[in-house]
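Q: What would this complex look like in 3D?
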Amino acid sequence: MMNWLNHIAIVVPDLAAAAAQYKLLGATTSAPKDLPEHGVTVVFVGIPNTKIELMHPLGEGSPIAGFLEKNPAGGIHHICFEVAEIDETSAKLREIGVRILGDGKPKFGAHDRPVLFAHPKDFQGALIEFQQT
Amino acid sequence: MMNWLNHIAIVVPDLAAAAAQYKLLGATTSAPKDLPEHGVTVVFVGIPNTKIELMHPLGEGSPIAGFLEKNPAGGIHHICFEVAEIDETSAKLREIGVRILGDGKPKFGAHDRPVLFAHPKDFQGALIEFQQT
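A: Here is my prediction, written as structure tokens for the whole assembly.
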């Protein structure tokens, strides 16, 4: 059920500076992409076996604004696993006592695929996203 | 220079419970392994393209005891990238203004390979380990 690690998301205070740093260390970086419907601007850092998403708040009420206030230097925000069937994952998580954030229903994520986030309190303090492949 | 993502390390309050949860979601998990010289007990969670290291403090003065005190529910602790030459990485990090934790010299890590950690304050708040392949 829990397949490929799709990405690691890192919230950063300065997207250009962060991207430049990864580039200087030899990683490939994309141009910044505004995702207004998700309240974030992202830069993808390519690593051969996965990717890193550098994220910065965009607009009012960004879902990551609070994280950056609490962690002004930035920090690792979440990790995302691919799953074959998001509804099956949702059912399994509930079955093993893991709450799902929000109204509990999968949403369309930043990659236009159904996603859900498990409650960190029910997942060893780590914010885990599941994304349907 | 920055190659394969070797692992994501997650500090957990209860290693057995954490391992069981990943197993219930279909991941493979190793038996717990005590690494007294590193002050941690680890369980490896296998994901096809990388691995997760679930870590719990072991013994007195564990380097992750403070993290668990600050984050009693646990949390994502660091991510580790493989590099070809740790000395080259060390020089490059200094060159771009990134401090190295400790005395600045590579150490033998939990995988018996030379590693170093970049200072999170100089790396967007994320704790990044570099491990020589």
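A: To summarize the key features: The two ends of chain B are 11 Å apart (CA to CA). Helices of chain B lie at 15-24, 65-70, 86-95.
Q: Very helpful, thank you.
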